[in-house]
Amino acid sequence: MEIKLSPSILSADFANLSRDVKTAVDAGAEYVHVDVMDGHFVPNITIGAPVVKALRKETDAVLDVHLMISDPDKYLDDFIAAGSDIITVHYESNGDTAGQLKKIRAAGVRAAVVIKPKTPVADIVPLLPLCDMVLVMTVEPGFGGQGFIPECMDKIRELRKAISDGGFPCELEIDGGAKLTNTADIVAAGADVIVAGSAVFGGDIADNVRKFHEVFRTGAERAEWVK
Hints:
The protein is an alpha/beta fold and 227 residues long. The chain is built from 8 helices and 8 strands. The radius of gyration is 16 Å and the shape is globular.
């Protein structure tokens, strides 16, 4: 099982976004995490589909687009057309989550559902057959640089068990507070895609990416779920 890194551009230098993304991808980052916030669903505003479209022209890496927005139904077509490879919708957002996942998949894009820290894993288990990936927020969504919520470790284990027991071929991503010091534990608990922002884009980007992959190997060696 390959553990993948999805650096969050929320922590990149937006004046040199293409450069920072290229540096991370060239160093081995498998995905590029794009945090879309609308100032309504979460108390922050970031970027929209035009930035995804611009990134698409600059990289062949997997664009992992996380929609922290209300009314995702209104914007799915825009993010699909912009070139997203993965589109993640919040279970807590309004609209028909199952219908959103189906629409994303029908467009040839990988579909994912995400839950906030306080949302029970059981709520999204019925959606796993429609998912290519599922995301657990390990901080409250809205701002970068927060600390990992320790109680979320049990949610990762519970979701990994649900995926394994059901035989669902979906990845398990975590977003929030991942550092070099705690990522081995996160991987051992069941995550196979790690979103990291400041821990990647703060300092030497290429060196940070390489160090994350070293930690991935350590975590995978301790994880019974890794085959």
